[in-house]
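Q: How would the structure tokens look for this protein?
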Amino acid sequence: MSTRYEIQDQQWRQIQDLFPPERKPQGGRPALDNRIMLNAMLWVARSGAPWRDLPDFFPHWKSVYTRFRRWQKAGIWDEVLKCVSLDSDEESVMVDATIVRVHQHGSGAKGGQAQAIGRSRGGLSTKIHAVVDALGNPLRFELTGGEAHDSVHGYEMLKAMKLTMKQVLADRAYDTNAIRAYLEEQRAIPVIPGKKNRRVSPKYDRDIYKERHLVECFFNKVKNYRRLATRYDKLACTFKAFLTLASIVVWLA
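A: Here is the predicted structure in token form.
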């Protein structure tokens, strides 16, 4: 049995109590072990293979998929991410976005925009907007169609955070009057280079700005999961659940 994609003992100990109990209170047939099911989900995420191609040493693919969806609907993935991110280093936060191409198998669901699928230069795509802490660990993310502008949704995510006296690192795409006004209102420190069309280029700490590569590193880590490097899922909620799962592993690494 391969252990390449499996969660390690130390990592599992940190999160095992955050998942629902395997046996129901009323008894009945024991459910399959949560760790085995999680490892099967990680295999699908890392390999990018369809659920039906799950190897025989894992439980039946339908059982794994059912539990994956059950946890997604119950908000378990979000709760686990929330718990593992309690020790975040928010001396500074970084915001950025990345494009994910949508495979032909991922298109066709009702409501393209509702499923965070849009059309950009490369065709159908989804954009992941993310905020990470000073160590490059994910704090929050949002999915949109690929044509959505970075600054619009970056502004909405920053507005949902307390940024008092924190450094906010971002590239030129986030150099908007709205974002700068909000950061000033929050007494946050913008580390954002000005757009070339600004008459007066705003000052920023170039040495601190170099740390912005950590948000790019986060995108690189989650795109090691082939299920996230290319979108095969029709539903945005399923794709986001895989993104949350990958983010949890980033925190545990």
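Strands lie at 92-102, 118-120, 123-132, 138-145, 167-169, 189-191, 230-231.

The chain has a mean pLDDT of 92.

Upvote if useful.
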